[in-house]
Amino acid sequence: MVDDGVSMHPMVLLPALVAPLQSGIVPDGGRDEIFRTIFVVFLVLGTIVGVVVIGYMLYNGYKFRDRGDRDGDDGIDRPELGELPEGGGGGRKLALSLLLSAVVVISLIAWTWVALVDVETQAAETDDSLDIRVEGYQFGWEFVYPNGNTSGTLRVPANTTVQLTVTSRDVFHNFGIPAFKMKTDAIPGQTTDTWFQPNETGTYQAQCFELCGAGHSAMNANVSVMEPDAYERWYANTTPSNTTTGNATATNASAAAANATTANNGTTAA
């Protein structure tokens, strides 16, 4: 055996052996497609198991039905009322059914776990993704692009993995886009990373999913999924100087509140 300097320990070879299997059994695509695939697999297998169980129950119900005038000449050994049924193969049928059930359930759990782990790691393996910073504030969202441009609308190209770095300027928020099955916390002083991959153009809604104050229900933002060429043209014409930021809105709101407070204090003093 030639020693090429690479360890042949089984624990070293395990990732290399699992990777092709994982790529073959884990659904590919965006978050919405992965979760849709998981749902369909559970639905199909659950339906098959339900049909088999209910079908077997109906078969036995018909086979051992009470005919009223039976004379026992049909060759079927029907159990009497209160009598335990025989012919179970000494427990082999029960053991086989439990074994098959365990195989199905454990396989589903393992496959779903691998798929969900892949959901969280898929974006990190993508080199041509788009990185956007998301900043939450009471009560809106601001999106910061790599060139420094900021906007209140999240514009992304279709068929591209979008990596989001999410944070908050004030209180706890939760940024989510229901259409893409994506949601993550926005925490002051910290960042959380998530991703999504839009495949169809259109306008979608981003929302805050954590109660953050009186304006929580209106803390929405449009997500515009554009054709890649259209997105490139739009992005080429953006600069940090023509931004639409949440800072201005927050500053104006704070100034209005301060003016109102000053006016009230003046009225009280008078």
Q: In the CATH hierarchy, what is the architecture of the largest domain at level 2?
A: Sandwich
Structural class of the helices, strands and pairings? alpha+beta
* Largest β-sheet summary: 5 strands, mixed
- CATH topology of the largest domain, by name, is Immunoglobulin-like
Radius of gyration using CA atoms only: 30 Å
Low-confidence stretches: 1-23, 243-270
Helix content: 40-55%
Rough outline: elongated
List SSEs in N-to-C order. Answer: HHHEEEEEEEEEEHH
- The count of β-strands is 10
Number of helices: 5
The total domain count is: 2
The CATH class name of the largest domain reads: Mainly Beta
Distance between the termini: 97 Å
Task: Find the CATH superfamily of the largest domain.
Answer: Cupredoxins -  blue copper proteins
Task: Give your account of this protein's structure.
It is a single chain. With 270 residues, the chain is of the alpha+beta class. It has two domains: 16-65 and 89-121, no CATH class; 127-257, Immunoglobulin-like. Helices cover 41% and strands 20% of the residues. It is built from five helices and ten strands; from the N terminus they run H-H-H-E-E-E-E-E-E-E-E-E-E-H-H. It has helices spanning 10-25, 31-63, 92-121, 228-236, 246-269, and strands at residues 130-137, 140-144, 150-151, 154-157, 162-168, 173-177, 182-186, 192-196, 202-208, 220-226. The strands form two sheets. A five-stranded mixed sheet has the order 3-2-1-5-8, with no helix packed on it. Strands 4-10-9-6-7 form a five-stranded mixed sheet, covered by helices on one side. A hairpin with a 4-residue loop joins strand 6 (173-177) and strand 7. It is elongated.
